[in-house]
């Protein structure tokens, strides 16, 4: 199984030290070239934390960089213009749609566009919940990771409460 990720998802999971969950849950992560540029090339230039872990995953080939076709690049540009999404999110949406894969995305506008396009998606917090439900994280690890994620991404109090409720109800 594979999943497509945008920059924010990779950065967030790396910042909380849980990039490994993407590999355990999905096997391979597909990213467009611009996401690699944003996360690794720009991240190294700015000395951002977690870049080395992402770069290592690319070297190990479980994060795969995909170059968009010319037609996909044109579609991506159209998404950017029409929906107020960044280039990385637009390219990730194009790849997820073209390959019929789920997308990990947390940006509100990109999620709205994914819904319109029929691209299934999850957010980084849902990845943590999925890992917990599949017993890759115990309850305390889930709570700790969720709290850390909440320092990295904005998660509404309602979303946090719902994720905690679901985790506490699981066996």
Describe it for me?
It is a single chain. The protein contains ten helices and five strands; from the N terminus they run βααβααβααβαβααα. The chain is α/β, with parallel strands linked by helices. The chain has two domains: 2-124, 3-Layer(aba) Sandwich (Rossmann fold); 125-169, no CATH class. The chain has a five-stranded parallel beta sheet with strand order 3-2-1-4-5. α7 links the parallel β4 (103-104) and β5. It is globular, with a radius of gyration of 16 Å. The mean pLDDT is 94.
Write the layout of secondary structure elements.
Elements lengths: L1 E4 L1 H9 L3 H8 L1 E5 H13 L5 H9 L3 E4 L3 H14 L3 H13 L3 E2 L3 H10 L3 E2 L1 H10 L5 H14 L4 H13 L2
Parallel strand pairs: 1-2, 1-4, 2-3, 4-5
Helix pairs in contact: 1-2, 1-3, 2-8, 3-4, 3-6, 5-6, 6-7, 8-9, 8-10, 9-10
Helix content: 55-70%
Q: What overall form do the CA principal axes indicate?
A: globular
CATH architecture descriptor text of the largest domain: 3-Layer(aba) Sandwich
CATH secondary-structure class of the largest domain: Alpha Beta
CATH topology annotation of the largest domain: Rossmann fold
Structural class: alpha/beta
N-to-C order of helices and strands: EHHEHHEHHEHEHHH
Number of helices: 10
Report a brief summary of the structure.
This protein has 171 residues and is of the alpha/beta class. The chain has helices at residues 7-15, 19-26, 33-45, 51-59, 70-83, 87-99, 108-117, 124-133, 139-152, 157-169, and strands at 2-5, 28-32, 63-66, 103-104, 121-122. The protein is 66% helix and 10% strand.
């Amino acid at each position: 199984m594979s999943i497509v990720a945008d920059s924010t998802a990779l950065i967030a999971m790396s910042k909380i030290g849980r990039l490994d969950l993407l590999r355990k849950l999905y096997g391979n992560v597909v990213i467009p070239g611009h996401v690699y540029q944003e996360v690794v090339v720009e991240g190294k230039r700015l000395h951002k934390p977690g870049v080395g872990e992402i770069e290592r995953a690319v070297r190990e080939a479980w994060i795969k960089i995909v170059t968009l076709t010319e037609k996909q690049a044109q579609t991506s540009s159209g998404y950017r213009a029409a929906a107020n999404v960044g280039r990385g999110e637009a390219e990730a949406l194009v790849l997820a749609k073209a390959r019929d894969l789920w997308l990990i995305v947390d940006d509100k506008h990109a999620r709205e566009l994914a819904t319109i396009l029929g691209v299934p998606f999850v957010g980084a917090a849902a990845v943590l919940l999925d890992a917990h439900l599949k017993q890759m994280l115990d309850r305390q690890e889930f709570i700790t990771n969720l709290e850390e994620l909440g320092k990295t991404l904005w998660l509404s109090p309602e979303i946090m409460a719902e994720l905690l409720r679901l985790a506490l109800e699981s066996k």
